[in-house]
Design brief:
Length: about 230
């Protein structure tokens, strides 16, 4: 029986843009596990299986409900130890935490200021008022104001990617010669923006762009097949 994944969708059911869900979709592909995704909208809290926190990703695996991307990755690693490892052992698991924290405290905040208005534009009609209100409360300004002048912030954002750039220009993946969950965490952030915004955050000649392209090619071009902008 395939694993069920509740996956954030926009107005178009196939436009999937949650960075946290992308981590898990890539992790499931890495493990070679069959998955059936259920498109879910921000305001459909009641449709999620219990227990949950009103957020996705949530998976159901043979009746077991797991929510939160980190808990899901740990669950998959423990539940399916004979399949390719997501972390490459305890040391890899520990170092993944650093990259996850960098992604969530530096990369995501940088990216959301480019793309939050585009998220609202792509959100389902029933989600738009909730999304606008909740995010404007969080930012203390309108979505338009958040994204205003985003071109001028691009050079500083690209400069902030130096640690990632220096890594992926010297090795194929963050995991080394082959990708690991740590790659999926960072990739999820770029795929989030790529799925809902035509604002290209990476220069074409950036080694980070080449790495993103390698990620898009994984699993027979799995991520590349989903609705998105750009290459
Ligand atoms: N810590 C959670 C974060 C999940 C999360 O924030 N998901 C977003 C979608 S990207 C969500 O479901 N938001 C619901 C809302 O804003 O109401 C994880 O790693 O899974």
């Amino acid at each position: 029986m395939p694993i069920t994944l509740y996956d954030l969708a926009g107005a178009e059911p196939e436009r999937r843009f949650s960075p946290f869900c992308w981590r898990i979709k890539m992790a499931l592909a890495h493990k070679g596990l069959a998955v059936e995704t259920i498109p879910w909208r921000f305001t459909e809290k009641d449709r999620l299986p219990q227990p949950n926190q009103g957020r996705v990703p949530v998976i159901v695996d043979n009746g077991t409900v797991v929510h939160d991307s980190t808990a899901i990755a740990d669950y998959l690693e423990a539940q399916y130890p004979d399949r390719p490892s997501l972390f490459g052992g305890a040391v890899g698991r520990a170092l993944t935490s650093f990259v996850q924290n960098w992604t969530e405290t530096v990369l995501h905040p940088g990216l959301i200021e480019f793309a939050v208005l585009d998220i609202w534009r792509h959100a389902a009609a029933q989600d738009q008022p909730y999304f606008r209100q909740s995010r404007e409360e969080r930012f203390g300004k309108t979505l338009e104001e958040v994204c205003n002048g985003r071109e001028t912030r691009l050079p500083a954002f690209r400069a902030s990617l130096a640690p990632l750039r220096r890594t992926v220009e010297r090795q194929q993946f963050l995991g080394g010669a082959a990708p690991l969950y740590v790659d999926y965490i960072v990739f999820g952030a770029f795929q989030w923006v790529r799925a809902i915004s035509d604002f290209e955050v990476l220069a074409a000649d950036d080694p980070v762009s080449a790495w993103r392209s390698r990620m898009l090619d994984l699993f027979g071009g799995f991520a590349r097949r989903h609705p998105a902008y750009g290459d």
